[in-house]
Amino acid sequence: MPKLLLITTDEDLSVRLKKLLSAGDFFLHQVEHLDDPKHSADLVIFAPEKVTETEFKLFKTHPLLHTADWILLSDGSPNKWVDLMMSQGMAYHFRQLKDYSPLLDVIQDFANEFKRLKINRRSATQTSTLDQYGSLLGSSAVMHKLYRLIRRVSQTDANVFLIGESGCGKEVAARTIHEQSERANEPMVSVNCAALATDLVESELFGHEKGAFTGAVNQHIGFFEQGGKGTLLLDEITEMPLALQSKLLRVLESGEFRRVGSDVVKQSNVRIIAATNREPEAAIEAGFLREDLYFRLAHFPINIPPLRDRDNDVLELAKHFLAYRN
What is the value of pTM for the model shown? Predict the structure, then answer.
């Protein structure tokens, strides 16, 4: 069974949850505050008296943020710190919870998924063994959380926003999401926004008609049409000019676009996965990313862990790739 951690000062909630969960052989450990001595956990239930900037900052730096799934219980009042928590990795949010059944259902589903997620053991040599999910390799706790997140989002059509340093595997994660989804038999188109010429970005994304501009000697099918009913990865989305981000936002809102030089409206049915090596908040503040576009894209934000946070994966990956090369 997964390890559960409850963070709250509400003793009534603690007693009730422990009683309800004991019937399912769950063990629930409790601490009162986010900065209390840390404990290992696979699922964290955070029920503060009120979500403030202090709680948000502690949440952002909590050592379990990237290894455990999180559930927030709040009073339901409008709160920008709650919204920021949801955009930074909080998996579930229950407002004004009176009936505990929905919470218990999520916990049970998590436990079932925790047991059901069968990681294929892949052995490069007799001394190198790595867990694998799709095209992703790694046995560390942060990778197992990533596998759970990808499995969950793959079962939906939600837009995904991948955040991680250059070289951490964002494109591999995007491909795994696509391959595990119902769109797996449809195309996956990857676009490096940083490599697109500024004056051709719109044409590359949406296509153009012959004669639409100087040099347009043939009709061009853009990435949105190439993606069809599949997946479109917009890598390094923060490198896209803001004017084009505005047009992209309108396409996401309406589901419609036009090729450059055409009045014919086309429907978009492609799933968007965006990726960046910048922190979204910093990118928005610095003018690299429209805030409204971010919230439209980040239905399901996922942080991809850097290699330095992956415990023993570094040595095992080195063994794996050495064996693969030989």
Answer: 0.71
